[in-house]
Amino acid sequence: MEDGIGGRGAGTGRRAAPAGAAALLSPLMPPGGRALAQGTGRQGGGQDAGDWPSRPVKVIVTYPPGGGADTVARILFARLSETLGQQFVIENRGGAGGTIGAQALARSTPDGYTLMHDATAFSVNPSLFRSLPYDARRDFAPAFLAVVVPNLLVATPSVPVRTVADVIALAKSRPGGLDWASAGNGSAQHLALALFAKMAGITLNHVPYRGGGPALNDIIGGQINFFFSNATSSIGHVKSGAVRGIAHTATGRMAALPDLPPVADTVPGYECLEWNGVFAPAATPGPVIAKLNAALNAVVAEPAIAERLAGLGAATRPNTPEEFRAFLESEMTKWGRVVREAGISVD
User: Fold this and answer.
1) Which residues lie in coiled coils (predicted)?
2) Do residues 192 and 338 touch, judged by C-beta distance below 8 A?
3) CB 3.0 to 4.6 Å from 48: which of 123, 206, 268, 287, for a disulfide?
């Protein structure tokens, strides 16, 4: 598919089974998205994986150290270094909603020795920015959907609310008077609150921070009222009582916080999940992508790794590059609609 993600990049040459995609992504990917789960474009160079990796591999993480994406990347690539016998070296290239790191990957040699660990903003940025220094659909080869993570609706403990219904009632009594943090204008957390406000019929005062860490610190310190915080960053603070957990943005129940209800119990149909994934530059040899995908699938299947990720509220399932590509297409469609309807822009 020339218009699909990775149109010039490397597939594995295998057509993804729709049932596999559904098992992986449901309820994240709508049925229409499954038709996109297929190999696209030419494979880079026709080589096989050979002895890859025969030297250290650089992994660009598009966010600063200590955040949710960085935490997941370090768990996965530390273990991958052990299983493949070469170092996968994290290089944090944060800034501009992940676009700085993505641009660096797009300009890298497509030989498998520079990878990227990115997150939800990758699928949001094409709608958020009028122009990007890369083509999100054509300059990257999606390799592995690492985790899917809900946000947690958290409040500073002094705010007199304990349920989503309480939050909505308070917001309606004080239109525009509730300060609501995000990790930045156009961030995944900004979109989560924009979608929540629209579906709940309320008006909130958006306060963008320069990253999720500072926003969470101000929730803990009582400087701001509410925040949709990435679960990997905030789950420990909810368990300790440093912040009040009100709800999560997935559907069903979270194993790590079984008593925390979903927002959808009060606002039917609400769902807002973040994801982390691994990319290579377009035209990276298909066999290298296939070997990387297989190795990462093996890592997340290990009980110790799966337990660590689950403890952070992160879910993962086996998946192929084609399934990840289809998931990205569905995410771009979903968040493009939210950005347009909320009138969000950063430039």
Assistant:
1) none
2) no
3) 287
